[in-house]
Amino acid sequence: MQAVVKPIAAPGLVLADVPQPVPGDGELLLRVAAASVCGTDVHIYDWNPWAAARVHPPRVIGHEICGEVVGRGPGADLPDGRRVAVESHIVCRQCNSCARGDFHVCPNTRILGVDVDGGFTSLVVVPQLNVFPISDDTTSEVAAALEPVGNAVHACSYGELAGRAVVVFGCGPIGCAAIAIARAEGAAAVIAVDRNRYRLELAERMGATSLVMADNNVEPSVRAAARGADIDCALEMSGAPSAVIAATRLVRPGGWISLLGIGDEPATLDLSNDVVMTGISLHGVVGRRLPQTWEATMEYVRSGAVDVSALITHHYAMSEIVAAIELIKSGHCGKVSLHPG
């Protein structure tokens, strides 16, 4: 079968023939119905320092997927034909973090398409514990995007949003999903901040009440957009050091910040003045809480409170992966969906 593969330790990806995987104990064989492209896939394509240190080629990439069960190994019992969304973080379930139920911070996590072969192909093997059955009225494209939407759900879970003023830094697909979730939770105002006009327009479609172009005057611009209201929380999705610093200075005393974006360089904060003396809470966000985040994410979709399909702006065949990645790098898209072929 054909798959999108990182063949060697160098920039680029290829479409290559790979053996059909065989499910082991507790594993399912899925026929991939749809996938979507993540920034992680772009890093692997570019072969940035993170990818070079983490990924060991050859590797089938792709971790945002929806599939149909077509086989299983010993101990797995989900029937053929069941459509599922996939959690990409495979945890050990043996360490202290897992014993506490903190699976999202398991130090032995293996990521689909990074540490083990992923889903940019026609057949993929995943642990049954990593799949979540979806309803017939959830499209495969939406189901594949539930994994990154879950990041946004997790980021939004650390404090009260109803009636609050929220600022979201970074309006890629996860940031835009966070905007929709904040509005679904009853946020009074959601201020979207990005340097990309296309993404700000997508943020507005997802429910942002004000748009701020990221520049050297972002703090006064955000305060102006708040129209005198306190900013209760910030959802930082960009990883840009300037955005992290701005978040700590904009959020009211006693407010909270979720930090999900990963930057290319460290941010230097004035912890004494901007965090300790203001009593704000910082929350590092990694992955999704299992299973709580998935349950909440699927309820947003089931109820219609969040329209995930509005995040998906482009569709490509997997054989067109390079074009899909170049589009993402241009910044003129939301979530990019892939289908086998």
From TrEMBL:
- EC class of the enzyme, as a word: oxidoreductase
GO terms of molecular function: L-threonine 3-dehydrogenase activity; zinc ion binding
**Keywords for this entry?**
Metal-binding, Oxidoreductase, Zinc
- Annotated EC: 1.1.1.103
Question: Which superkingdom heads the taxonomic lineage of this protein's source?
Answer: Bacteria
> Which InterPro entries would you find in this protein's record?
ADH-like_C, ADH-like_N, ADH_Zn_CS, ER, GroES-like_sf, NAD(P)-bd_dom_sf, Zn_alcohol_dh
Positions of the Enoyl reductase (ER) domain: 9-338
**What are the names of the required cofactors?**
Zn(2+)
The similarity annotation says: Belongs to the zinc-containing alcohol dehydrogenase family.
The name on file for this protein is Alcohol dehydrogenase catalytic domain-containing protein
Annotated source species:
Candidatus Aeolococcus gillhamiae
